[in-house]
Amino acid sequence: MAKKIIQRFMPSDETIKNNKSLKFLGDRLHDPNLWHLNRRSVAKAFAIGLFFAWVPLPTQMAMSAAIAFYFRAHLAISVALVWITNPLTMPPMFYFAYLVGLWAMQIPPSNAEFIFSVDNILTTLGDSWQPFLVGCFILGVGSSILGFFGIHAAWRYQVLSSWKKRRQKVNL
To answer: pLDDT tens for residues 91-150?
Structure first.
């Protein structure tokens, strides 16, 4: 099912090979790991995509694609996982990252009342950017590790259950 969804939204191999703006990438663009679903490329894609979902920059997708290309991870999955961070999920995710950063740096949270003004935001930004970035890094690394090993475990479980079903069919 996932393969059909990806094939529906992904351009064909021929379209990518003939794209003039991608010629500078050379033959490495045609590496099967970038486009085909296999355990290693998908696990690497989850690690990369989940890490860059916590990067608070507007270039998340480009960075994810570049790292996926370099490490030969599934390109589409690594870029799509960055979309976990979207306008709806960003405020709670980044607030949680800020709280994790406060905890990691052992800084008590501010009890000051939040007033929505440019002056107040700029004032509080000076105090909060370090715990925020530390929290983003911790959560990025943690979710990356969990995603990588979680995909390996899920893939192994799927293969073992398929083998078990085949054995049961043969024994019937």
So the answer is: 889 889 988 999 999 988 776 665 656 666 666 667 788 888 999 999 999 999 999 999
Picking from 144, 156, 119, 155, the residue whose alpha carbon sits closest to that of residue 50 is 144
Confidence of residue 21 (pLDDT cuts 50, 70, 90): low
Instruction: Give the residue among 130, 166, 118 at the shortest CA–CA distance from 56.
Output: 130
34 close to 22: Cβ distance less than 8 angstroms: no
DSSP 36: S
- Single-letter amino acid, residue 2: A
Q: Do the Cβ atoms of 44 and 72 come closer than 8 Å?
A: yes
DSSP 106-121: T-PPP-PPP--SHHHH
Place of tokens 């703006």: 21
Contacts of 31 (CB under 8 A, 6+ apart): 72
pTM for the full predicted model: 0.77
CB 102 within 8 Å of CB 81: no
